[in-house]
Amino acid sequence: MADDDQSPTLLPGQISVGRGPAAPRGASELAAPVGEPEERELEAALRPRNLSDFVGQERVRKQLALVLAASKIRGRSADHVLMSGPPGLGKTTLAMIVAAEMNAPLRISSGPAIQHAGDLAAILSSLTEGEVLFLDEIHRMSRPAEEMLYMAMEDFRVDIIVGKGAGATAIPLELPAFTLVGATTRAGLLPGPLRDRFGFTGHLEFYSVAELELVLRRSAGMMDLKLSSAGFAQIAGRSRGTPRIANRLLRRVRDWALVHGLEVIDAGAASAALDMYEVDARGLDRLDRSVLDALINKFNGGPVGLSTLAIAVGEESETVETVAEPFLVREGLLGRTPRGRIALPAAWEHLGLKMPGNAVAAAMLPLDAEGLDS
């Protein structure tokens, strides 16, 4: 249920939280970008509180700093902000930083939680002057609520419809100036009229290993952990370019070192810990390797349809498509063709197998994300 009219007034730094989007069924792997609720609470403690502490995303960080600084000089609420990019890269953290930098309260909700225009009206009517409203997965908001949001973003006003049919009356409701921060993992699903109403749009990219090492050093300092440079590099190299995963792996390495009585974690200890959790040197977890193993050993490298591949690994099609495939495609291990999924030469090499001639021919198929065999 979205926030209602009785929501208490928030002071700067306080947060009101709505429901977040659900993770795909079966997406509980250690290296999955979407964390469980308990993991999210631990991650929150490691979040940077201001832009100067935020590591990586230099281009977006500098642009956002300029937008916020100009807004403070003018003495007005910041322009609406849209953050896009894969999960785990810092969209929620940046929303919290926007509120902290503007010394404003933060209200958090999500697109899936707003299924009716009334849900959105309840949230908007309870906002205070200058408040920051963060909508995660904004592309999943219902169309009626989305159309109401247009006027709220542009004119800080919504029309409340009273009655039905010919006797319906629109009552205008003035809203205090607020800043909307929207986050989406699928910017292409946002309609043009909504996207155009954001004053600043930032796209977050995957992190380099060097940037992830900086993230890990900051987190280790807060957790009072001692790691060698090689230990940091070992964890960063298996973190799939995602800070959320890096911090999660760091906590698992911490647990392993605690049980084994280690005061300093070196590369060998980090590697042993992550091997135990089935995260290999390239960052692939159990699900990733299961997909590659089934694709190569059961279907001779493909092509094979998504649903057939999902059945072979005992997972839902959505889990394979949204959790495993993006990383495997980005690493050049798996290809998506009009005839189905295929294993690329790097996948055979990663599993220590020799690629037969017919698999080479399949790998030569044109890659095309449209019209995929399901």
Produce the secondary structure layout.
Elements lengths: L14 E3 L19 H9 L12 H17 L6 E4 L6 H11 L4 E5 L6 H9 L6 E5 L6 H13 L1 E6 L6 E6 L4 E6 L7 H4 L4 E4 L5 H14 L3 E2 L1 H9 L5 H17 L4 E2 L1 H10 L9 H13 L7 H8 L3 H14 L3 E4 L2 E4 L1 H6 L6 H7 L11
Parallel strand pairs: 1-3, 2-7, 2-8, 3-4, 4-7, 9-10
Antiparallel strand pairs: 5-6, 11-12
User: What is the helix fraction of residues, given as a range?
Assistant: 40-55%
The largest beta-sheet arranges its strands as: 1-3-4-7-2-8
The helix count comes to 15
Succession of helices and strands: EHHEHEHEHEEEHEHEHHEHHHHEEHH
Count of individual beta strands:
12
Beta-strand percentage?
Answer: 5-15%
Main beta sheet strand tally, sense and closure: 6 strands, parallel
Our measurement of the CA-to-CA distance between the termini, rounded to an integer number of angstroms, reads 34 Å
Compute the average pLDDT. 81
Radius of gyration: 23 Å
Uncertain residue segments: 1-28
SS-based class: alpha/beta
Shape: globular
How would you characterize the overall build of this protein?
This protein is of the alpha/beta class and 374 residues long. The protein is built from 15 helices and 12 strands. It has helices at residues 37-45, 58-74, 91-101, 117-125, 143-155, 192-195, 209-222, 229-237, 243-259, 267-276, 286-298, 306-313, 317-330, 345-350, 357-363; strands at residues 15-17, 81-84, 106-110, 132-136, 157-162, 169-174, 179-184, 200-203, 226-227, 264-265, 334-337, 340-343. Strands 1-3-4-7-2-8 form a 6-stranded parallel beta sheet, with helices on one face. Strands 5-6 form a two-stranded antiparallel sheet. A two-stranded parallel ribbon has the order 9-10. Helix 4 (117-125) runs parallel beside helix 5 and helix 8 (229-237) runs parallel beside helix 10. It is globular and about 70 Å long. The model is unreliable at 1-28 (pLDDT under 50).
